[in-house]
């Protein structure tokens, strides 16, 4: 999924943090699931399209997709994100 | 701790990211600790009760409990969080 | 890097989350890199100095440095962060 989202310019970078364990209740039962945390760096403008793409690619009925807003950051890195997800350069 | 917090409807989901190493100074000495990062998904309204519960369950004198606010997210997932931590359904 | 930033009182705590895999395009090519996620706890006031220090220590030309703002947190822990990065105590 990560490579697809990068090549579609929906994220500039996707960082997979391996081996996560999630606890939650689903339909009344406690569930313990092996999961993967993916931290995706994109822009607010590209978020809606990214969310649709994740929903289409993800195996879950209700995947956990959460957006946090960046308050500060290394300017050249933030500029690079904008360049990478710029739709006009979509290959 | 994670299972307890889920069953008490203080969090909808707790995701444990294993094997973290923390560096910090404690009482003037550099400390390197093996720790576990737990990402807990809840609502702003349930946060105070969650913080009290973590403090009661956590072995540290001053545990690291930090709340970040969600800016955007997959609507059905966010709705599910609210349903799961709704106190009126506390078993 | 983490120990240096703690001893320079630029961060109160640095938590290294090991074994991350990042996908991104660099100069037109898809790259898959083994990386490390470091979650650094500091104050908004110390962030500019922290960013300069990371840039000086980091091997990348454009390192990913992102700041998120804390919305809520365990008061004694937040107070501890402010004490630890208080420049007047720099050794």
Automatic annotation (TrEMBL), chains A, B, C:
**Which InterPro entries did the record assign?**
Ion_tolerance_CutA, N-reg_PII-like_a/b, N-reg_PII/ATP_PRibTrfase_C
So where does this one cross the membrane? Answer: none
Extract one GO molecular function annotation from the record. copper ion binding
Sorted alphabetically, the Gene Ontology BP terms of this entry are: response to metal ion
Sorted alphabetically, which SUPFAM superfamilies does this protein's record hold? GlnB-like (SSF54913)
Q: Tell me, what's a Pfam family for it?
A: CutA1
Q: Which PANTHER family match?
A: DIVALENT CATION TOLERANCE CUTA-RELATED, FI09726P
Q: Which family does it belong to?
A: Belongs to the CutA family.
Protein name listed in UniProt: Divalent-cation tolerance protein CutA
